[in-house]
Design goal:
With about 300 residues, the protein is an alpha+beta fold. It folds into three domains: about 100 residues, Rossmann fold (3-Layer(aba) Sandwich); about 60 residues, ATP-grasp fold, A domain (Dna Ligase, domain 1, 2-Layer Sandwich), CATH 3.30.1490.20; about 110 residues, D-amino Acid Aminotransferase, Chain A, domain 1, CATH 3.30.470. The protein has nine helices and 16 strands. The strands form four sheets. It has a five-stranded antiparallel beta sheet, with helices on both faces. Strands 2-1-6-7 form a four-stranded parallel beta sheet, with helices on both faces. The chain has a four-stranded antiparallel beta sheet with strand order 8-11-9-10, with helices on one face. Helix 2 packs antiparallel against helix 3. The longest helix has 14 residues. It is globular. About 40% of the residues are buried.
């Protein structure tokens, strides 16, 4: 097969591993800068050009779409779908997962465990919003934040009121969530491919920090997950319609709760922690499922 990898960083670990895995299995690959693609939406023959040349001979595409270019990246993936190219994660599913509020609503609709989450628009509703999530301590999250950026732990009610008022004052969309103290600054990243968790790692925040993201100094180790955690991760990916996903779970006194669904999960941390060749498993999934004009997004909403 000929596989396109949409990535702005050809030297990034995840991109390099996918290229290596595909080539090792006998496939031809090309890394394509998403923002250098430009499209012709002609009804008879939609097309994509890249650096002056048409991209018309790929069998499959692996989107590695950064959060900052979600709108344009999803449009490029959608154009490939219009051309009949199989995408391991489809444009609708990517857009769903990147909208944090929408993704929380879709997960809640499927009765998938979540931290108690509140969303409001008006400063007058702040007291009730805080009560809704069980009071302080609580977590305030920017809807557009990634890798732990824009996530604030408010340890007192007064601090929570001040932080939420500040965000409302600059017209920024936020979510407010209950703080799961028993997690101890740790979460579990489950890497889902198709209908199974192929690898899992436990991420632990460094001392004095509650965010466990590896980009923020967190440490990673292999995780043994329970059947309930496995079911929750697979159900969360299915709710978004994602074939490949990183599902972040937090362990609470009332079971596993989904913190976030990632449509372009990194490979470095999970491969190093688990010792599993996740990149090759992604390519194997494509081999089993890639068909021309096979656009069939799972999930709804």
């Amino acid at each position: 097969m000929k596989i396109a990898i949409l990535s702005r960083g050809p030297r990034l670990y995840s991109t390099r591993r996918l290229v290596e895995a595909a080539k090792a299995r006998g496939h031809e690959t090309k890394v394509i800068d998403t923002l250098r693609c430009y499209m012709n939406m002609a009804t008879a023959k939609p097309s994509i050009n890249y650096r002056g040349n048409p991209l018309d001979d790929f069998d499959a595409v692996i989107p590695r779409i950064g959060a900052s270019i979600t709108f344009y990246g999803a449009a490029v993936v959608r154009q490939f779908e219009m051309m009949g190219v199989y995408s391991v994660n489809e444009s609708v599913a990517i857009s769903r997962s990147r909208d944090k509020l929408r993704s929380m609503q879709l997960l809640a609709r499927r009765d998938i465990g979540l931290p108690v989450t509140g969303f409001a628009h008006t400063a007058d509703d702040i007291p009730d919003l805080i009560n809704m999530v069980g009071g302080a301590p609580l977590v305030v999250k920017l809807l557009e934040g990634t890798q732990g950026v824009g996530v604030v732990l408010c340890e007192t009610r007064k601090a929570a009121e001040s932080v939420i008022e500040a965000f409302f004052g600059i017209d920024v969309n936020i979510m407010v969530q209950e703080y799961i103290a028993e997690a101890g600054g740790a979460d579990v990243r489950c890497f889902v491919i198709g209908d199974r968790v192929v690898a899992a790692m436990r991420r632990q925040a460094q001392p004095g920090e509650f965010r466990s993201n590896l980009h923020r100094g967190g440490s990673a180790s292999v995780a043994r997950i329970s059947p309930a955690e496995r079911r929750t991760a697979v159900a969360a990916a299915r709710a978004m319609g994602l074939n490949v996903a990183g599902i972040d779970l937090i362990r609470s006194n009332h079971g596993p709760l989904v913190l976030e669904v990632n449509s372009s999960p990194g490979l470095e941390g999970i491969e190093e922690a688990s010792g599993i060749d996740v990149a090759s498993l992604v390519v194997e999934f494509i081999e089993r499922n890639a068909r021309r004009s096979r656009t069939r997004t799972r999930g709804s909403g």
